[in-house]
């Protein structure tokens, strides 16, 4: 099966089950909790959990499907709380929870999802030790995501962030949840320590590449295609890998740090960055992480699941939005 | 051992271990997470977990001590998030997290504690199935606490809350965490379904009695003794059991719904409520829950732990602050 088809099929399964579990719950708080969760999304993290499980123990993914949902629910909880912190008003094509309801309801809606994620782990059909280990992985991951988000916010007040600090931050904020998605799938499927660690590291490195690509997309992809403002990171002076490498190379982007950049200005900035080799350098960094991720899968024999995970890693840095 | 001594000893153990685990972690987010947690408190929930475990399997409480901490960590996470929603500025004698830091940091600090609570459950020495069940109990409990807090906030916009709605709300907001504290202690100690259910129900009914007493304390205890504003619920027109029963009895408290009530006004309100028999009726309701709670323990043979749990229930409605 082609990756695209596989992801579509998984997303359908995930949508159906999330809708069944959360779509019809009564009460405003349940509605607020379900709001972003059932508004769609690529469902990449559940796909990773399922693939990791089938890679370790072909066919077991139906049994651990609730854990795959747990990863999407965790991701959504972080989005609901992040949207409050960043005061974002739209997400997945719908108003954010604190805008549609209010901040107290959004805090509670995120907290509800947080608990549901842990409960979903326990709903899998798997060895109890594997479930306990998966709860541990998810808990540790949530702490790291919070630390990553806190670092991301603290970077906004700084202009001297170094590239390794950036990598560490996105590793926590994005890498660790992909790492958990893969490691939990492998653990519940009965994988040994070596397999689980390899899957964890695959997810971690892939997630870092994903986030670097996200920053490139923000800069390069026109808003008609991405559905988001182009070059918003540039206009906000955000410490992305592009901004950090530009500063290190002596490229001054300060004149673009203003609201409502024109398409000419965005083009000028991209030209400057391309001429200085910054964009190539950032792409190269993302590719390095992609290669490190793929290397981690070398301990597994060739099979469809391994191929699809490899293709996911490639997709992370080839996608245009 | 007397209850007072027992609670003091347990609080010391809890303080020591929380300080060791959270007191010295580096970084602002860790400091914000630890802030309220290590600021003290009665540590009643961990004491309940320990007593429930020793009631089921004498001497096993050292092995499940991390789970006892998990209950205190969960309680603190809810306080950190509730303080944001209610915009309270002081708690446990220190500034609240969102006041000392800011709202985004407080959201994240609560989220960190949330994950740590689940991780602490897994750190107990117990059967893996018991750990999985405990994770399930904690997760379900957290959902219910959130629902209780949401109902509590929605009651502020209503003047027609009925007593059973109030009981259901405080049952979720306060009862369920005591229920979880006892049920998790019993489960990890190897208790059977009957024992665990009895402990759960003991905690649930005790917690409801605790909250009714909390509302009475707010009304009756002078601020010199309680450290909080006296009659703040009355002044805010909060739908407590006192307010609901007063409304049902045709006692009009609307003139006390204003800021800065004088001690004469508070005395007048208390006199009115006493004359109408409201305070006795509310006390009677709390006593009913205390009796229902104690009944739940009848399946256990007499022992120190059973006596101490019974005394905790009595203490919940005899304490003056």
Automatic annotation (TrEMBL), chains A, B:
Ranges in a coiled coil: none
Signal peptide: none
Keyword Transferase carried by entry: yes
A Pfam family: polyprenyl_synt
Keyword Methyltransferase on entry: no
Gene3D superfamilies tied to this protein: Farnesyl Diphosphate Synthase
Domain of life where this protein originates: Archaea
Any one GO BP annotation for this protein: isoprenoid biosynthetic process
Cofactor(s) of this protein: Mg(2+)
Keywords: Magnesium, Metal-binding, Transferase
Listed GO MF terms: metal ion binding; prenyltransferase activity
Record family assignment: Belongs to the FPP/GGPP synthase family.
Protein name: Polyprenyl synthetase family protein
Organism: Methanomicrobium antiquum
Taxonomic lineage from the root: Archaea, Methanobacteriati, Methanobacteriota, Stenosarchaea group, Methanomicrobia
